[in-house]
Each structure stands twice: as C-alpha cells, then as structure tokens.
Write a structure and sequence with these properties.
Helix content: over 70%
Order of helices and strands: HHHHHHHHHH
Strand content: under 5%
Structural class: mainly alpha
Largest sheet: none
Shape: elongated
Distance between the termini: 53 Å
Number of helices: 10
Number of strands: 0
Radius of gyration: 21 Å
C-alpha cells in the first residue's frame, strides 16, 4: 500500500534549480518535472506572482480587444434586439419601453461589456491562483488521501495557469478572426452559423481543448505535489468540470430562450 507523504515545511528546502523562465515554459512540455521541483524546493513567490500578473493583463487586454470588434458589437446588438422582441411579445414591456431600453443599451451597453469583461478577467485570475488551490488542498486531504500545503498548491496552480493564459490569447484571436464571441479552440469551430439558443452549439463551445489540457496538467500537479495517484485526481477533476460545464450550458440555454 502506498503511503502518502505528510505536510511538510518549506523553510529548510533548497532553492529551485531552474530559472523562473524555464519553469514557465517547461510547464507546457514537461510539467511533471516542474511540479517535482516545486515540491522539493522552498516556496518561491515569483512562481505565483508572475503568472497572476500575466493572467490579469491578458484577461483585460482580451476583453478590450474582443468588445472593440465591430462584428462582436453587432452580435451583442442582435442578441439584445431578440431579447427585447421576446419581452414585447410576452407582454413584459411595451414597444415604447423596448425602444427606450434599446437606446439606453446602445449608449452604455458596450461600455459595460468592456468593463465587465476586464473585471471578470482579473477576478478569474485570482480565482485560478488562490481559490482553486484552496479547493485542491481540501480535496487532497479527506477525499484524495494526500497532503497538499496551501502555498505549494498556489505555486502549482499558478504555474499551470500558463496554459489558460495561452488559451486566452488563442481564444481572443479566434474571436477576432471569426467574428463570433463564442468561438473557442475546439469542435465549435466546425459550426457554420453559431446559434446561442442552441444547446448543442453551446455544448460544443464549452469543449475547449485548452481547458482540457489545463485540467490534465492541473491533475498531474495535484498528484505530484500532493502525493496522490494521478488517476484518482484525473477522475475527480474531469468529473467536476463535466458538472460545471453542463450547468453552464444549461444556464446559457435557459437564459437565451427565456
């Protein structure tokens, strides 16, 4: 029977043998080696600080770039128009009220979208770096039967965030090129005319290959740093993703069709 290592202090551990730049790039090619070094080395603030800053910058820049595209602005207007028409038909507002709401949305809607997108990019960066590691630590104990010190989890999770950082760049480029704010690197690229009210299209949009890659690397990090079987971690992480993705698709379809 494999025995899981106990929690360990980091004060007496040696400094990392590789440079920060090497760790940031090697996470794409040899993540296991990076995580082994994180586990065996003293805690390094730079391991989580630089990925956090990069994630915030890419999140803000991506949101501002996406919502500055005329095609995306037109897509937002069309969706707003559809919602107003539904509300008028349902008797929830008059045509005059719909026209007033349309004029107000035309003036401030895109500004709100830009600000909201930028803020969400920063918020999600902090979630990835600080909140997810807390969940990993809680999982590693009673469920996965391992030991994952919080700051080690923060380092591991932040380094793994280099993948969604790259994913954010790829997604932004796809949205700009395709003129579709639902574009992601995945099977949704095979859809000719994307319909946000179509649950199948929303499901295809949720299947993001960069996300799947990130979850796999994240699972490896939890296993290596926390001392638990990687298969067990993969099962838990992907099961959680499936539940969240299904909930997101269901909520999106409900919001689009209500």
């Amino acid at each position: 029977m494999n025995e899981n290592p106990p929690s360990f202090p980091t004060a007496g551990l040696p400094a990392p043998t590789s440079s920060l730049a090497s760790r940031l790039f090697n996470i794409f090619a040899t993540p296991g080696e990076v995580f082994d070094e994180v586990k065996a080395s003293a805690t390094q603030t730079a391991n989580w600080l630089l990925p956090l800053l990069l994630s915030c910058v890419i999140g803000v820049a991506g949101a501002l770039t996406i919502f500055a595209q005329p095609a995306i602005q037109q897509q937002i207007r069309e969706q707003q128009e559809q919602q107003f028409e539904k509300m008028v038909k349902a008797g929830k507002m008059t045509k005059e009220q719909a026209e007033s709401a349309r004029s107000a949305a035309e003036g401030i809607g895109l500004t709100v979208a830009k600000i909201g997108g930028a803020v969400m990019g920063v918020v999600m960066s902090f979630v990835w770096v600080f909140l997810l590691p807390l969940l990993f630590k809680l999982l590693a104990g009673p469920i996965l039967k391992g030991s994952l010190p919080y700051m080690k989890a923060v380092e591991m999770g932040a380094l793994a965030c280099m993948i969604p950082i790259l994913g954010g760049i790829v997604k932004t480029l796809l949205i700009v090129v395709m003129g579709n704010m639902y574009a992601t690197p995945g099977p949704v690229l095979l859809v000719g005319e994307f319909d946000p009210q179509n649950a199948t299209h929303l499901t295809l949009s949720a299947v993001n290959v960069m996300t799947l890659w990130y979850l796999g690397v994240l699972s490896l990090g939890i296993a290596r740093v926390g001392g638990v079987p990687v298969g067990k971690v993969l099962a838990w992480v992907y099961a959680a993703w499936l539940l969240l993705a299904a909930a997101g698709v269901g909520l999106g379809a409900w919001a689009a069709n209500r």
